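Deliverable D4.2, example record:
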Amino acid sequence: MEGASQCADLLFELGTEELPPVALKRLSDALTWAFVEGLQRANLQHGPVHAYATPRRLALWVEACATAQPDRATERRGPAVQAAFDAEGNPTRAAQGFARSCNTGVDQLERLTTDKGEWLVYNFQELGKPTAELLPGIAEEALNRLPIPKRMRWGASEAQFVRPVQWLLFLLGEQVVPCRLLDTEAGNLTHGHRFHHPQALRIEHPAQYAEVLREQGRVIADFAQRREKIRRQVAQTADAIGGHAPIDEALLDEVTGLVEWPVPISAGFEERFLEVPHEALISTMKKNQKYFHLVDAQGRLMNHFITIANIDSPKPELIKEGNERVVRPRLSDAMFFWQQDGKRTLDSRIDSLKGVLFQQKLGSMHDKSVRVAALAGVIAGHIGGDRAAAEKAGMLSRCDLMTEMVYEFPEMQGIMGRYQAKRDGESDEIAQALDEFYMPRFSGDDLPRTRTGIAVSLAERLDTLVGIFGIGMKPTGDKDPFALRRAALGALRIMREHSLALDLRQLLEYAVEQLRPAITEPDCAEEVYGFMLERLKGIYLDQQIAVDLFEAVAAIRPDSIADFDRRVQAVVAFRTLTAADALAAANKRIHNILKKSAQAIPPEVDPDLFDSPQEQTLYSVIEQKRNEIAPLMADAAYEQVLQSLATLQAPVDQFFDQVMVMADNPAIRTNRLALLNRLNKLFLGVADISILQS
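Output generated by the structure prediction step:
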C-alpha cells in the first residue's frame, strides 16, 4: 500500500480522580485488551503494548502502530452477464446502473465465471483510512466495554465513568489525536503526583511517557514495577526491624492501587494488644488499614507494622504517629471483644443457637449442631477417631458465631472457636477441630488434619447436602444459594485425599434418618450421591482423567470415595497395557450379548455341556483367575487384579473366533451365556471396562 511501512508510537492516557484500588488492575487489563482488539479489527499492525495504571490514570503505549490501514483489493459483483447485455450485445439498464454506482463505465467492468454462471464485477483498490481518524472510535468503544458495575456523572457533564475524568492525553507520534471523549478534549498534557508535582507535564513523544512521569512527576506509572518496588520496600523495612513480613498478594495489589510514589513507613502498637488472637489483629491491620504485619523468626506476630505512604514526606514521623493513632482504637476494640467473650464458655452459648435459624424447614442452628454432632460421632467411629470428642466438637462448632469477636470479624469464625475452646480448657483435639470444621474454606484450601476435625467437617457438609436436597432445593443452573457444590467438593476432597474407607451411601442414609420429619424428597440420598459423583468427575477431569475412564468406575457405584479413587488409578494403569483395547472391546461384546438375552442365565456353569476345547480353556482360566484375584480384591489391589485379568485376552479371542454363543441347543446356549457372565463379573469387580473407548 501507499505508505505501508509508515508507523508511529501511540499513547493513550485517561486521567481521573482516584480509581477504586481493588479494581484498578482489572480495569487496566480490560482497557488494554479492548483497545488492542480494536486495533486488530481495524487491521492496524503494531508492536509491543505497555499498560500503565495508577490511582489517577489508565494508560497504554503501543509501539510502532501503523499510521493508516493498508489498501485493500475489493470486488463488487453486479448483474449476471445474461441480464447485463441484450441480444445485440448492448449493455442493459442493469449493467449501466451498476457501472454508475461504481463511478465507472460498462467497458471498465470485468467478468467473473462461477459454477452458477457469469457475472459482471468491478475490481478496485479501497484506500485505507488514516489511523488518526479511527483511533477516537477505538478508544471510545474500549472505554465503554470496561467492567464498571455502576458509572457516575460529575458536574454538569452528561459523560459517565467510574470516576470523574480530569484530562485526556492522546498521541500518535508527536501529533495529538483530535477528539473529545467523556466530555474531555484530547491533548498532549499529563499530570504528575497530586502533591509532589500537580502541574501539567507535556509529553512530546509516547516513548517518553513513563520516564517523564517518574523523573519529573514522581509517579511510577507501571503497575507491575510499582508492585515489585513495594514488595522490596516492605521486605527491606521488615528486615531492618528484625522481622519478616508475610506478603498477602491481594493486599499488595490493593496497596499498589492506592499509591503512585510508594514510601514505606514502619510503626508499632503496644505489646499488650498481643494478648488478643493474632488473626484478629492481622485482620484489622490488613482489612481496615492496609498495613503489612510482621512476624519474628518463630512466626509469632510482632507489635510492628509497615504502611505504604503516597508521599515522600520531610517528616515521616508524623505519618508514623498518625497511623499508630488511627489503628489503636481498632486494636482496643478487638481486645475489648476478646475480654468480653472470655466471660462465657462456648458450652454456655449452645442454647443461644436455638434462636438462630439455619433454614425454615430444617430448623435452627442448634438443631443442625445436634445432627452434625451425631453424624460426626458415627464418622469418627469409622475412621479411628474419638467418638465422644467428635460429638462434643459438633455441638460446639457453631458457638463462636455467638461471640462479639466473630460478629465484628466474621473471618474469625472457627479461629475464634479454637482460641475460646483452649481458654475454656477443652482438649487440643477439640479446639483444633473447631477451626478445622470450616476447612476447606475455598478451592485449594488446607484440609482438616485431626480425626475429630475431619469428622465434624465432613458431617457438616453431608448434613447440609442431604437437608437442602431433601426439601427440594437442589442447585439449578448458576443458582446455588447454600453453596452445595462447594460443600460437595469439600467433602470429596476430605474423603479422597485422606483415603477414608467410609461408606458414603450409608452416611447419606444416616443423615436422611436424622432429617426424616423434614424430608419431602424420598430419593434424596441417591440424588446427593449422584450430585457428588458429578463433582468428582470434574475433579478427575481437572487431573486429565478421561470421562470414559471415570464412567467405567462410576458404573459400579463404589461405596467409598477412597475406593473409587483406587479403582480409577487401577483403570488408568490398565489402559496402558497392550491387551486393554481388545479386552475392552470383548467386554463390550459380552455386555451387549448378555443385555440382549431374553432368557434367564443360570448362576453356575456346567462343564459337561461344553462341546469345544475353547469353552473348556476359557472356563479353566476363569476359575484360575477367580482364585488368583480373590486375595487381591480383599486387599483392594485393583491394579494387580486388572493386570492379572489382562492375560485373558488370548483365550477370550479364541473363544469368540471359534464358538457360536447363541447355539441352537438351548442348554448349550444358556451355559455359554453363564460362562460369559462369569467372565464379565471378574472385570466388574473393579470397573466396567466395556465403557472404555479405544
